[in-house]
Write a structure and sequence with these properties.
3 strands, mainly alpha, binds fe (ii) ion, Ribonucleotide Reductase, subunit A
């Protein structure tokens, strides 16, 4: 993720600028240039090999099992441990599908709009080049996720459940429907996702004994996302500081729900996995309730949201009581 804020005027895109009808054209700058220095040599799309699943590796956990909390539930761990490998395979499918959708439907769409001046602010010249590199990165992430998903389906012969549309897309659409400016809401959700995904990938890449192709994809992705994190963090900060204080606080008020959209467990997706491996509906609900209504998940969400809250603090955007309450209750809405 990155953040850039500002107006610019007289550009070649004036005819299509979102603010052409009477608005000034803000141009934002970012200090993220350093993070993209050396991109042609460092980016995964430029240097990494294709990650190929070894047929012998499919006997391993296809996803780090310690990152799948419901596997510890007694109905799974004690009563049906033989279903764990199947569940891990379906979790890998959901993870890859989530990432594919995040890149193609959200991050690259938002970044394209930034480049093409379709948002109420635009990037300066250097930031536009970096945004183009970011788009290349994300397109490659989407490709290696689709490629790995295809390889895994072929080698394991485990069918996808068909319930893999990530829940965050529905929550984003809902938020945009309630927003006065759906484009800005999309930008805020993108910035938040780019600030959250880095920590998640760093955690996942070093987890357990998974096939080299799986850990390789996570490693490639994490390396690139460190750049994106700085880019969208800068951009979010620049955007918020360019606004009058009240408007900035109103924008910041959307952030807790954006965090929740990514961090809260995708219950429909997990339920689909559990049904697919043979649990009945009562068992599914028991597993979901016992696992995800617990407060242990809240600690993880709080930790992940900490840097975003730190940014708001640095910008002197002390949250309103309502927003502070929303942050305090992140991870509890199940
Ligand atoms: Fe990515
Ligand atoms: Fe990214």
């Amino acid at each position: 993720m990155c953040g850039v804020a500002g107006f610019f005027t007289g550009c070649e895109f004036a005819q299509t600028c979102a603010l052409k009808n009477g608005g000034a054209c803000r141009s934002l700058t970012t200090d993220a240039a350093r993070s993209f220095r050396g991109w042609y040599d460092k980016a995964s799309v430029r240097r990494s090999p294709r990650r190929e699943l070894d047929p012998e590796d499919i006997a391993l956990d296809l996803f780090p099992r310690h990152l799948v909390p419901h596997l510890a539930h007694p109905l799974i761990a004690q009563s049906h441990p033989e279903r764990i490998q199947h569940l891990l395979t379906l979790t890998l499918y959901r993870f890859l599908t989530f990432t594919f959708n995040l890149e193609m439907q959200l991050v690259n769409d938002t970044t394209r709009k930034l480049i093409m001046h379709e948002l109420p602010f635009s990037l300066d010249g250097a930031a536009i080049l970096n945004a183009q590199k970011l788009i290349c990165d994300e397109a490659y992430h989407a490709l290696f996720c689709a490629d790995l998903l295809d390889q895994a389906i072929t080698l394991t012969e485990v069918a996808p459940t068909g319930t893999a549309r990530p829940a965050f897309l529905s929550r984003l659409a809902e938020a945009q429907g309630a927003s006065e400016d759906p484009g800005i809401t999309q930008f805020l959700y993108t910035a938040v996702s780019e600030m959250l995904i880095t920590a998640t990938l760093y955690e996942a890449r070093s987890a357990g004994e998974v096939p080299g192709a799986v850990s390789g994809v996570m490693l490639d992705h994490a390396a690139d996302e460190a750049r994106h994190h700085i880019f969208y963090r800068d951009l979010l900060g620049s955007y918020l500081t360019s606004l009058p204080k009240g408007d900035a606080q109103a924008a910041a008020a959307q952030i807790p729900e954006a965090i929740a959209a990514y961090m809260e467990p995708d219950l429909p997706g997990i339920r689909g996995d559990l049904l697919a491996v043979g649990f009945d509906r009562d068992d599914c609900e028991e597993i979901l309730f016992d696992t995800y209504a617990a407060t242990s998940h809240k600690d993880y969400v709080d930790m992940s949201a900490r840097e975003i809250q730190r940014l708001l603090h640095e910008l002197d955007l002390s949250p309103t009581a309502e927003v502070a309450d929303a942050f305090a209750h992140l991870g509890e809405r199940l």
